[in-house]
Amino acid sequence: MIAAFLSGDRKAGDALARRYYPVLHKYFRERVHHDEVEELTQSTLMHTVARSERFRHASSFRSYVYAVARRVVAERHRQSMRNRELPRSGVDAQSLDTSPSERVARAERRQALDAAVAELRSPFRAVVTLHLAGHDNREIAGRLGLNDNTVRSRLSRGLASLRRALGSEQRRRVDPL
Fold it and tell me: What is the pLDDT of residues 106-132, one digit of tens each?
């Protein structure tokens, strides 16, 4: 099916889009505000089609789709940093028990974390992003097609890079806030 898609078969492309739509939708639900999930899912599918000549047959097509999705979400994070938008999150029980200044501080920490994650090199960013979304090392290894030792190493190095990037006030803990 992938070969047919790459040679221009529209039906194969539609079948691949149907196959990867739910996968991408879940990926973005774990990373961005729910209002952006649909847009980023469609954007990733369009980028996958538009840039299909970049697909390297040495890797799986699934890895290629995830690489496109990572670039799309990283670009969205960079845009939000440029626009200095606060993260769009709903009201939760924790925010009801905190002062407005604490909520602003938490939003700023989250924004700084998102920006720092977006700046990580791709191999580290993928592992750290899945870790921050709550996946354990075994799940991360399965999703990315890596062995457990590689995941542990990339996670350790990626989190160390985040701590350095975030500075002393957040060195104690890097978490999804």
Answer: 778 778 888 888 888 888 988 988 888
Cα of 108 vs its chain's centroid, Å = 19
Token couple for 47: 């980028």
DSSP 86: P
The amino acid that residue 124 corresponds to is: F
- Asked whether the beta carbons of 130 and 144 are under 8 A apart, the reply is yes
pTM over 0.70: no
Return the half-sphere exposure (C-beta side, CA atoms, 13 A cut-off) of residue 7. Answer: 4
Name the one residue in this structure whose structure tokens are 């350095």.
164
Domains annotated on the chain, with CATH: 1-85 (1.10.1740.10), 95-177 (1.10.10.10)
